[in-house]
Queue: 4 jobs
Job 1
Amino acid sequence: MRLRPVVLVVLIVCAFYYLTTRLMPIGALAGLVHHVATEGTSTINGPLGSFSLTEAKAAPEYDAEEQQNIAVYKKALPSVVNITSTQVAYDFFLRPVPQQGQGSGFILDTQGHILTNNHVIEGAQMVEVTLWNQKKYKAQVMNVDKIHDLALLQIQAKDLQPATLASGNNLVVGQRVYAIGNPFGFSGTMTRGIISALRSVAMPNGSKIDNAIQTDASVNPGNSGGPLLNSKGEVIGITTMIANNPNSQVDQSAGIGFAIPISVAKATMEDFARFGRARRPSLDVVTLPIGPDIAEQIGLPADYGILIERVNPGGAAEKAGMRGGTQRAYMGNTPVMLGGDLIVAFDGQEITTPQDLAQALNSHRAGDTVSITVFRGRQRMVFHVTLSDAKQIDSGTVI
């Protein structure tokens, strides 16, 4: 009697083993457990025979990252435009030959104002804008800012969707960004990356982009003038240029692109509205950045700041009483002028790099009066400077 429970257990285990291994394959057992099938098989018959294809039963579900990408694209695309500029060149027989260039831009308001790069439309006899719905309009060039490589266009169109511009200037390296534009003529193309760095970059026209946004989002010829967006679909910059691969025979993405911060563009747009032209505030000085090593070598009272090498005659700094250098020296093979005022603060904010000073200037307008703190020798002094309207200077780092 005591053996009966043991025998019963053994019989049950044996029966379960026989059923699951001989009569019911594992797939069949899984079918009993999972009642909802996610895949199915369809058969296609034709002259070459039959093909069995495994197909999903339902549409895919997008993960959170994919949903964000899709949301950014849907929000921004209607405000992005393709720009075609036409110039007239002449062949060997002096016959006119139209030449076209392509770029991108984005809509600012319902009145049809569009922002792009100046180099996209520079020298063009005709500019045409194509919207996301493929409708085309002739555009008028309203104004340009050559220093910042910006151009304002206008088209006459209805039901336009303006882009949303980001507020503030809170950009962080590592922040996710998106570029939408017209690379190589492929309209409505979106790429994604991060902010790789924030730095000053020299442009082909000789000017500089202060606090330019460097990104690894793939940008190529045709992206110029298009928006660089944050994860909310807000414009944080204007895609402007790429770093070329020296081993490449064509201009193409090398993973290093640059965009003008939207804060710079906003200031330019306000100048267009108030003065009919771009006005860039300036101290009218040529400067030299100072670090601990240089400061120790030339005996400066602070190990940071911006040393004034030269003040421009009649400029804002000279009118306020600030001084440039008087002693010629060399840094390597580069001649510099020492002995000038050392700028260490702007309206009470510490200035340690040229980028600090450029950002401080970009938050003001020509005609504003600001306080500049300097060291003249060992004496700390404060000057009240009325900023001037910047002009193109022949050489040097002019601020």
Job 2
Amino acid sequence: MVGVGWVVLMDDWLGRGGPAGAAFAFLAGGLLLLPIASTYGRLVREIPDAGGEIAYAEGVFPAPVAFAAAWTMVLSYAIVCPWEAVAVGNLLARLFPWFNELPLYTVAGKIITAPRVAAGLLLTGAIAGVNYRGIRLSGVVQNVLTFGLLSLFAIFTALGFIRGNTDNLPPLFAQPGTVGALLSVLLVLQVVPYFMTGFESIGKESEEARADFDPRHFRRAITIALIVGLSFYVIIIVAVCLVFPWKRLVAEHLGTEVAFARAFSSSALAKVILFAAFLSLVKIFNGNFVAATRLLHGISRRGLVHGSLASIDTRRHTPAMAILLMAVLTAGAVFLGDALLVPVTEVGSLAVGVGWLSTCLAFIARARRAGPTWSREGAATASIGAVVSLSIIVMKAWPSIPGSFTLPEWIAFSLWSGLGLIFWSLRKRGAREAPRPKELQA
């Protein structure tokens, strides 16, 4: 859930909302997602399946609708991978200026350099290699990176609150007045779903949980993940604005590490933050890569896309072709460079909204069919989640709403939808679900 947006896009968040607008948007956005998280927790307990959204929707929605929802959800994970592959070059350039040398071409006014492209391709290859070797290795890597990030985060945010100055906070919102304050929150709220995506990915790995894992704990894990994620974002936004005047940060397009470095006159602290960001970047790249490939595998296992994506490496028990496809798509996107960063967050927000909406509606439909075996409380919670999810979609799709999709975002979303139509047309009609691999049963 936590990548490097808190470093490379802090100026964008504060430019949209200011310190109060950005912090409140992440807090409110995270809390609004709790009903969705609860719904996922209930469904994962009953249906532990790598197919995620398509597993929840099948049997209650027509196959094309279930596929469309799941394919769009793949986008929400798949789109994070190229984001991180591009962001690693941006991050390394902050440490090593020569990463901005050897220009190749420009995309949307952004210069693409050879070192940045090479870094993105190397990281993509490394993540694909780790995932090909098995979920156990991927899990070990994820644990090390996550706890490393949280340890460093605790250090520099504590310094920020101790040494920070509240005089740096005003104005609290990017836009003046009451209407401006609401607009400030709305503009940040629109990208919050993208940065909070990940709590529901637990369902995609549910088949690979330990044999003695109590399914009731899935819901707890999902809820804790969401709460920790929203807390992380709120804390870092406030800490940055306490240590450095946010207006200057936005005007000079500075990152989080520069704000801390100038506030403490310490280049070493900036390097600590960048190292934490690097751990975070690799962590979220790996996590989303796992989720995307498992979801692709789950869709293909049902014969709804080409059957090769359901294939499993006989030695390592990993979805080899799904891993290869994700690696190729990610590597291709690396060549688009930094122009990809902000539009991707916009597209990702719409994509997760579609996936979350389908899941909440699927739960409601299942609850009506099952009767008292599915709790009324769960159906009510899912209804709230459906309203929240629909609101996310409307915020991005309705043209008159500030911050809604522009032409580049619609083009990106249309290209992904077109790819889905191609896969759907190549599906094996009447195919039965493929046997589950040993490791995906564990």
Job 3
Amino acid sequence: MPSSALPASSPGLLAGVVVLDLSSVGPAARCTRLLADYGATVVKVGAVPGRGAQPINPPFYAYSGSRGLQRIAIDLKDPDGRDAFLELVESADVVVESFRPGVIDRLGIGYPALMAVNPDVILCSTTGFGQSGPRSDWAGHDINYLAVGGYLAASEPRGDGGPPIAGATLADAAGGGMHAAMAIMAALIGRRETGAGAHLDVSIAEGVLWLTSLAVDEHLATGAEVGPGHNIISGRYACYDTYQAADGKWLAVGAIEPKFYANLCRRLGCEQWVAHQLDDEVQEKIRADFRAAFASRDQATWVDELAGFDTCVSPVQTVADLVDDEQYRSRRAIVDVVMDAEDSAAPLDGSDAGGPKRFRQVGPVLAGMVRPEGPVAVRDPATSDAGALLEAAGIPPERIAELRAKGVVA
């Protein structure tokens, strides 16, 4: 059944899967956002406010806010906190962490400790370079992984000749977040057959390596120096480029197939170039004629003229443009959000997380996710579910009260 046909009441494809997420931002948080949108129960396990180093607290809107998440704060450096976390692990399917290699072992919650309480648990460790190798302890962010994975060097240089800065966190989102989510889903499927858990070593840099593997594999097989302008998808030919319209806005052209390229040439009034799509000798002449043609009308006029007529032309949209795009609107890709101001649970630190009570955000848009019919209710990201989670883990109320009084959980 296509995802668009899933009933609104569907609990999600990962319903029943319980995930403990020790991350706050970055690829691991992108991973568990995906898992939650597929229906998994995701519990964000954060640091207790005021005890030790505090992680980055993302803005209320980041990572789709608190849509579908539960939260608890635990001091993992305290033995009582560690034991409380391990009691949560007993009934969990997956634990996701993004500490540097070795940290969870020093905290007493490494894979052997997790298996001791839950032999079939899946641990996903998400780091920049993996759990081993000479760079395993390097700090880094998205730009660093795009750099070492070949992505920046394979992209069109900026004006000074240097590699560009990507406009989206591709390494975090795809090289790390999607990579980790896919690995977890594979491990869950494998566990059905074997009954065994797994420790998944997710390297974001290796995720980027996979993203650039078409270029890397070509170099390995042929010795070609693959980079900007090397082939049809990296700017060598006029049929795959961007062009400015009369109003200063831009259009993207991806007319790779000869029939689409021919359609484009004819509608631009450039029929003379139909037979020269891959003729290197005349590419600048084709570009000059394409530029002149596109500069004669505004973007919207060209979209009306070209986009629906097998030319592979689309508008280059800003973020402000796309949030009201008719295609996304028709598929409910952008959802209305209502912050639950009546939540009876106490905030983790007694404060208001701020932010508007009504806003919009990107909804569950990937295939197989259940798209809401109306507004999505989200909770204040400072809200804690500690009491309910610990009670469900079998910890007696008096013990929960002791942990709260000690400041080990919140």
Job 4
Amino acid sequence: MRILYIDLNNSGISGDMFLAALLGIVPEPENILKDLRNLKDYLPGVSQLIIDLKKISISGIQLNQLKIEIKENKDHRSAKTLKDSLNKYLNENFFSDSAKNYANQVLNSLIQAEAEVHGELANKVHLHELSSIDTLIDILGVTIALDKINSFDKNFQFYCSKIPLGGGKVNTAHGLLTIPAPATLKILEKSNLITFGGPIESELVTPTGIALLTGLNPEFLEYPPEMMIKKSVYSTGQKKFKDFQNILRLFFGEYNDLEIIKSTHPMQKYVEKVSILETDVDDVSGEILGNFINEFKNEKVLDLQITPSLTKKNRPSYIIKVLCYPKYKFELMEKIIHELGTLGVRYSIMNRLCVDRIIEKRSITINNKDYNVNFKVSYIELENSKEIVNIKPEYEDIKKISKDSGFPVRKIQFIIQAKIKQLFY
């Protein structure tokens, strides 16, 4: 399994930044630039096109940066003109079918986003900034580079960090607009990418950059995944900021075990990332611990354990362990510190396998009276069927029936368990 992890924490993304980084991974990048210079002959109105890959230094780090010089007249270009030029280039040069589909998907997402923003039909929309040849340079350059490293193969996986969007306002053909640009937001709406505002007041994500990224359907990971790193590349865009490095990083590598799991085992789809938060306390009362449990009964906490232990000074203590999704870890660690007064919380992120489950309501007759009981049905979804793992009645419903009927909880459990086959099979 080959892997590309796209680290945008200190950059955001634009088309030229992504292309500049990918050119650091592919063999013979100059050949790609040579092919891209021929785009001048595919789009009407272009009189000059110069594309070069430069090496610059920021904070002592050597970076890739594209230098593009364009002379063109783009005033009357339509979405159709851009699509025709894109497909003419794709058809007259060697691209895989998957690469052709990706390039068209990216351009179509840009056109559709503009159409939705302006309330127009996609084939009637005027693209303004996006009608420039640099849109085609970004899309086709990234497509060529990805095709060169066989990234459209099924044994290739993309991962991506969270993405800073920037802030403030930007000048466009439609006037002064708030960042992120409307087209960027429309594309993000249809993605699973994790974003955040800031950390500076400038545009850090362009519509073309986010369209290229969304088209790859990357999985979100806060940190790079397990892999053998074969190459790491740094790139930057045209903008320079005083308090923001604007450095995009790519990690290109392999993980052989992942290839076996992903290609052969149906349980792989149930793997997800979780965070384990852990601390030790030896100076809190039982009342505080009881209140702590009550405070952590919410949807952000997947599980909670409190285990008695002894410290190195032979003092009785408790190990507090909280399971949650990674996006909630800092919020919950802050709450742990405030609730327990602990000075520190350990945390780690790991994989877990968690099968599907649904809640189904059934009616049970006990002592000539009908009761509604919620059952948690866990199952594994196979290719053509569902395999039930367990069926469990909700304990709170059992307690209510016990209180109403006068039967012990244990007896209610026996009665319901005996009827599960009749109710579900």
